[in-house]
Amino acid sequence: MFQNVILGLLVMVGCLFVQALLVTAAMRTYARHSAAVERGSFGSTMLVICGVMIVLVVGNFLQVCIWGALFIQLGEFEDFQVAVYHSAVNFATLGYGDIVMSARHRILGPMQSLNGILMMGVSTAVVMSALQDALQRMRSARLDNGNTD
């Protein structure tokens, strides 16, 4: 079990690295399109926030695939789609239980769930931060233009 815990921690660190790269990409996406936010249009602001969210969701899915690849490598699954499905259920903490791993590696399921909770929390924080900043910029732009709606 100790080896699985170490392996799980290493994958979690790798996922944190992926998450950090994607957070950086999401924030660059936001910064690159900040002019659209400063125009004060709700529609353009939401498009920018959706862009940030999509970057982060892609990052979370990439992490699901990393865990799925690990499960394949360990011999838990033969089909990548099944491994990714099982991984997504763990990562999202759904816990369906329709597909289970062997007793030998099952500690990795809860470890992946912890990883998913943490990484989705980071994604949520980034989206909320961008949304709060965008709403503040949108409000400031409207006030500067004399529009108090």
UniProtKB/TrEMBL annotation:
Domain of life: Bacteria
Gene3D superfamilies tied to this protein: 1.10.287.70
Keyword hit for Membrane: yes
The keyword Transmembrane appears for this protein: yes
InterPro entries per the UniProt record, alphabetical: K_chnl_dom
Signal peptide annotation: none
Annotated keywords: Ion channel, Ion transport, Membrane, Transmembrane, Transmembrane helix, Transport
Membrane-spanning segments: 6-26, 47-70, 113-131
Domain Potassium channel stretches: 64-132
Single GO BP term: monoatomic ion transmembrane transport
Protein name: Two pore domain potassium channel family protein
The species this protein was found in: Seongchinamella unica
Higher taxonomy: Bacteria, Pseudomonadati, Pseudomonadota, Gammaproteobacteria, Cellvibrionales
